[in-house]
Amino acid sequence: MKKFFNLILKTMLPIALGAVILWWIYRDFDFTQVSAVVCNEMNLWWFALSTFFGVMSHVIRGWRWLLTLEPLGYKPRCSNCVYAIFIAYGANLVVPRVGEVSRCAVLDRCDGVPFIQSLGTVVAERLIDTIMVLTLVVAALTLQWKIFYTFFVEAGGGSNDTQLFSSITNIGITLASVTAIALFAYLIIKKMALLKKLKSILCRFWEGVMALSKMKNFKLFFIETVGIWFCYFMQFYLCFFCFPFSSGLSIAAGLLLFVAGSVAVVVPTPNGAGPWHFAIISMMVLYGVTQSDAGMFALIVHTSQTALVAILGVIGLMMVKTDKKKINV
């Protein structure tokens, strides 16, 4: 019964939270306009270039993972590292935060890299990525503090009585998101507490975490880390040029919106669905984009990026299975 409850908590609750937030945001949205905008207004060349950067962010992440595994004495095939990343992000669409476990399982099965040690390298990577996000946050706030402050005030309740209902909604979405993050953080900490009881496993896990300090080519690791986040940013920013109503937004505005979206996806919903839309729409409105156009942008961009992640996940699974069959033969 406990396992069933945990399964429901990990799968259904994130989906339900994202669905409720999306329903509220788009409850008055005219979805009949979407096809018209995509067919008649959307610049598909910019969209194709954005998609290229989206794919490359995953590929470079796979290359970077290979660097962190080398100090442990393991040299899995580069292609399998990339496919594992594809699968990981695809898995996150089904169960948020399960991707890290999935990609370690792929390498364990395909190249014999011990699961616990590879998981340690993933944790080390995430720590570096957290530093990158914090750096981007500082840069974005420095460049666009007034816009962020306005967003923060409105999301926190605002002071305009005419916007009371909207403010209450903003508070509700914010509290729901923070609660979901806290709940999943608790579950992760609880699992870590169980790991501490298994000293041999914990030692191998820590060995993976410390792999970064033993890397011979840390310069390449740094370059690839910057490359990953550059690709993430370009995938998002280039979408501005896909639509007439957002093409005039500055690169500084793009950075602030990108940071807001990156923070929003921390909320455990499928690919940040709901909180990401809320953050992007609220920010775009502050830059003068209409509520309807901002909603259109968020809907199309997030849906297309989620579809890309799903497609890459399927490709990763197919390639791994095909490669496994060749080895068995």
Question: Can you summarize this structure?
Answer:
With 329 residues, the chain is mainly alpha-helical. 78% of the residues lie in helices and 0% in strands. It has helices at 2-25, 32-41, 44-69, 78-94, 99-111, 115-143, 145-155, 164-196, 199-209, 218-237, 251-264, 275-286, 291-328.
Class derived from helix and strand content: mainly alpha
Order of helices and strands: HHHHHHHHHHHHH
Beta-strand segment tally: 0
- Helical fraction: over 70%
Global outline? globular
**Oligomeric organization of the protein chains:** single chain
Name the beta content range. under 5%
* Number of continuous helical runs: 13
* Main β sheet profile: none
Nearest-integer average pLDDT: 80
Low-confidence sequence ranges: 156-165, 197-201
Rounded to the nearest angstrom, the distance between the terminal CA atoms is 42 Å
Rg: 21 Å
SSE inventory with pairings:
Blueprint: H1 2-25, H2 32-41, H3 44-69, H4 78-94, H5 99-111, H6 115-143, H7 145-155, H8 164-196, H9 199-209, H10 218-237, H11 251-264, H12 275-286, H13 291-328
Description:
The protein has helices at 2-25, 32-41, 44-69, 78-94, 99-111, 115-143, 145-155, 164-196, 199-209, 218-237, 251-264, 275-286, 291-328. With 329 residues, the chain is mainly α.
Please name the defining characteristics of this protein.
about 325 residues; mainly alpha; 13 helices; about 80% helix
